[in-house]
């Protein structure tokens, strides 16, 4: 049987740790799959991209589109133009998309509209149709008409919703879900959201969290990281950093708005009077901080915030595991801290990962200086939060995904 050609799409930093376990699992079925890693180049700095390939032991991307930065429209359009050529050139049978970044949206949109019939592709669609029909989970499912001249689209991390359309990620994930043939969910919320939106339940597969697969796999290795010693040496030449808070901040709603950025960073300077704050700075945030006013800069200069370049996967895991508190506006870090049992304050009015709040490890903090400081002080009093036990956050999500794919598209 000919191998099924699969594109695994990555574009931005949070994609790499999600694709890595799926790629490695697929490589175990060398007779079934030809996995091809396609990197759009949305993130391109060494510290936002290459370091993750090294840390996660991924091969260099087989295809690199090099799209770089731009407005949402420009970035999305650049990915679409270049991605379409690769689809036409290599005619994959399936693409695997993860998460909610602009690259995810651009590739799903392109694949949903392209047409290149082939015998191999039609065979995959026949297998898929039969498989989905055999999963008659609920009685009243109406299959939509769809072309079998385009690749199948699988979305990993489907169904997450912040219900906040001001977030570009919410638009990206909602549209990608609507264009996908296979919806792989990380938690029960994902299934519930998709069902509430009327998705065909036969296309939904609750498989767990691939990011936790990577975390589990690399946790031991991250123990050996020397990042804390390096940061301590950088800070004062000797000494060590024992108890600290860890910060990440990059959401446009937090960093593009100067008063909001000032409120958050001022809160961090105050928190740093109680506990050193380690703050690896995203390029977007760096740019905006550089434009901040004199008074904020003075506060920063007299604070105990340790600003660093963006940090690689293993070093960041090391820092996360040992942090007394994490303050973040990232999505994935809310999940990682939950799994690790590290208290997390999320600097956002909402989250598409409410399961982390229910688990008791994560709290949304009102975006006001005093509230951030007060919540941080309260969280720091907790000696310990219990690691969340969430179904299928167990290191085997990629295995479940690849099993489904082997059953469906590689079936005879
Ligand atoms: C993107 C994702 C966001 C994800 C985040 C993780 C979208 C809409 N957003 O946001 O969901 O949480 O990645 O980092 O896809 N830049 C560099 N070097 C790089 C990458 C970016 O300097 O390697 C700068 C560029 O000036 C760029 C800005 O950062 O304009 C923002 O990058 P972009 O990819 O547009 O969005 P992120 O804010 O990184």
Number of domains: 2
Sheet of most strands: 7 strands, parallel
Q: Give every kind of bound small molecule, once each.
A: uridine-diphosphate-N-acetylglucosamine
Span of the ends, CA to CA: 8 Å
Unreliable parts: none
Rg, alpha carbons = 22 Å
Note the overall shape: elongated
CATH architect. name of the largest domain: 3-Layer(aba) Sandwich
Structural class: alpha/beta
- The CATH superfamily of the largest domain is Glycogen Phosphorylase B
Can you tell me about this structure?
This protein has 412 residues and is an alpha/beta fold. It has 2 domains: 4-209 and 393-410, Rossmann fold; 217-382, Glycogen Phosphorylase B (Rossmann fold), CATH 3.40.50.2000. Helix content is 48%, strand content 13%. It has 18 helices and 13 strands. The N and C termini lie close together (8 Å). The model has no long low-confidence stretch (mean pLDDT 95). Bound molecules: uridine-diphosphate-N-acetylglucosamine (UD1). Residues 12-14, 42-45, 48, 69, 75, 100-102, 168-169, 250, 282-284, 330 line the site of uridine-diphosphate-N-acetylglucosamine (UD1). The site of uridine-diphosphate-N-acetylglucosamine has 20 residues, from helix 1, helix 6 and helix 12.
List the helices and strands and how they pair.
Layout: E1 4-10, H1 13-27, E2 33-39, H2 50-55, E3 63-64, H3 72-90, E4 94-98, H4 102-113, H5 119-134, E5 152-156, H6 168-179, E6 182-185, H7 188-196, E7 204-206, H8 210-223, H9 227-236, E8 245-248, H10 252-255, H11 258-271, E9 277-280, H12 283-290, H13 294-301, E10 305-308, H14 313-322, E11 325-328, H15 332-340, E12 344-346, H16 354-358, E13 362-364, H17 369-381, H18 397-408
Parallel strand pairs: 1-2, 1-4, 2-3, 4-5, 5-6, 6-7, 8-9, 8-11, 9-10, 11-12, 12-13
Bound molecules: uridine-diphosphate-N-acetylglucosamine (UD1).
